Predict the 3D structure of the following.
Amino acid sequence: HAVERIVLAYSGGLDTSVAVPWLAERFDAEIIAVTLNLGQGKELEDVRERALAVGAIKCHVVDVREEFVQHYVLPALQAGALYEGRYPMATSLGRPLIAKRLVEIAEIEGATAIAHGCTGKGNDQVRIDVSVRALNRKIRVIAPARIWGMSRPDEIEYARKRDIPVPATVESPYSTDANLWGRSIECGVIEDPWLEPPEDIYTLTSSITDCSDTPAYVEIQFNEGVPTAINGVAMPLIDLINSVETVAGAHGVGRLDMVENRLVGIKSREIYEAPAATVLHMAHRELEMFVISRDLERVKGYLSGVYADLVYDGLWFTPTREAIDALVAQVQTRVTGMIRLKLFKGECRVVGRKSPYALYDQDLATYDAEDQFDHKAAEGFIKIFGLPVETAARRAPNSYGSSVEKSTTKSR
């Protein structure tokens, strides 16, 4: 009979290493491993050999950093998408791209199923499953960790019995995920929301006690919403993100400690390191507010929250996300200029801004002799603006004035 083929998202860790033989045995299938370079910084050179050693018939290793930055990170940055107002969603943004590449390779390889190592209580399973269904609903999705019921010691024993080489058994008590936009840390002692996270969990950001006593000033240049230069040096977006991460991380900027609402209905304590995302989101938002009107800023702010929820919830491949992208792209035509930020001992503050499209007019804003604002027009404006308030108060069953008089009388 024809042997089924399954494409597996392969990280090289214990779960996905055990998943290769488990899937092969359970489904009598050939396993094709896929590893994507999203800028996670892990050693990927020998990942193909490791995948083949545990039983995969082949392994695709693909560098998708440029696609990730241009088509996922940048739109989210321009949308101002921060989940629950804080989390820049490095992990969330990577999942639809992973699903897209898994589907493409499954179609090339003639595979009938896609597998991943996500657990049954996390968000990633939803993001990948839903994305795959949006891209090719004929391909089924298998999640071994939702099925096999094995604990970590069980997995190690499973591998030992089959002489399967797996990563070292002594591992960090934390579960981490990283790419070029940030890093997440969960599990271990940080599951107690009262405890301060230990310093040893951080790799991208310096402790405040180790930071320089001299602040750093960073100037970010944007061209139509795209960061193009740092401190006057133009560079590709990937390099710019790496440069900002290095500078901001050295000054302790980019640590997030939050209890967030997972899509599956539970609250989870998460620690994030996102030095570049923290700085670039702040800079982009500040410049955008500098060049667009109040009413548009209100609409954009609301859509930022909607966009963040879509990304977090795994709804990337949807008409809603595409429609918001279209509006955001229109807004970005004005977002050109420079933002100056001050980084100091974990704090990031905007201290300067300039743009050829700024709606800030110093001649109108100043209180000096150069003031061009028409003060005489203010009285008529206030009268018309306050007319509905005055009318409602006059026609109210108990006017505000009467209420004040009654309360004053009673107090006497």
Remarks:
- The mean pLDDT is 93.
- The chain is about 45% helix and 20% strand.
- The longest strand covers residues 29-37.
